[in-house]
Amino acid sequence: MEARQIARSKLGNRMMPEWDAIHADDFKLAVAMDSGDEATVNQMLFEKKREMVREALADNFDTSIKTTGELNERGKLQAKAKQIHGKSNSPESINAYLMTFDSMRDGPIRDDIESLYDQKLREAAQEVLTSNAIYNLAKPGLRGSPADLSKANRDGRAGDRVVDHSYGVDRNTGALIAGMPTEGGHSDNFPHDVAPEYSNARWNMGTEQKYINKSKGNRTGKDAQIAMRNSLKNRMRKDETGDIIRSIANGWQVGEGYGVMKDDMTSPKSMRESLASQAVEAKAMKDSVMNNIIKQVGRDELREYDNLVRQNGGDDRQVTINADTVILEKAINGNGRRRK
Questions:
Q1: What is this structure's pTM?
Q2: Residue 124 lies inside a defined structural domain of this protein
Q3: Dihedral through CA 271, CA 273, CA 276, CA 282, nearest 10?
């Protein structure tokens, strides 16, 4: 009532009907809380959480409230991915390639920092989504069935996807995902064929544009950059309208352009050749890095940390997005600040 009185003093009587309409639910909730009507309070809070999740998914999922079936599922939110096609050459897709290339070469374009709202949204998702909706949201990028995951991992993956879609953009590159076809994509450093042991880990999965995920495949590093560049070149060659060239010219400005491509990047490798060369380089780098980490952190502590992550369904998403950051945390950030 105090808020209403303040609003009246500022808006006057003529605007109060509009104010009352906007805040009708808040007023109803306040009355229920004051009267001790616990059932109404719980129902209204549940509906608020359900609306939070629905809004987060609205651009990419068809949602509805379940009214039949098991009693404990009724009232919860159903979600099924929309079928979105025909946007591979759209300005939003072209931008995604430019932004992905930029982030691969120069580092993430945006800081992915968990907020309090992200945490609340993730918790709300686990409460208001039907079991089938959780299954649908947990599946992107997964090898196998969500039913084979632990409940913590399955619920956590679904919550992660809800948070991803609430941003409307790729949380590392900034590329648009709202209203675009999406897939679950592994982090750049740990694709499935290179690190199958981490394939289903929560921290190794994010939401990205389908076209980007398909072009990238299992490539990393320079090979992934080549894939982004060549995909744009192929589209430009096939485009008779000039729209793609205009989209590139007017789109995201990569830090220093594409720069001078070294000789070893002038010709694309096949997927098999890419993985073969990548495996040799990755093993040498991994051996060197891991030896240094083991000296500073300890082999037993690393093993204990890995087991703990697995037992908790990979629930370290709030700490980091990329596995290399997780593993190197103590080795390179001993002073509590990231080194430049």
A1: 0.67
A2: yes
A3: -80
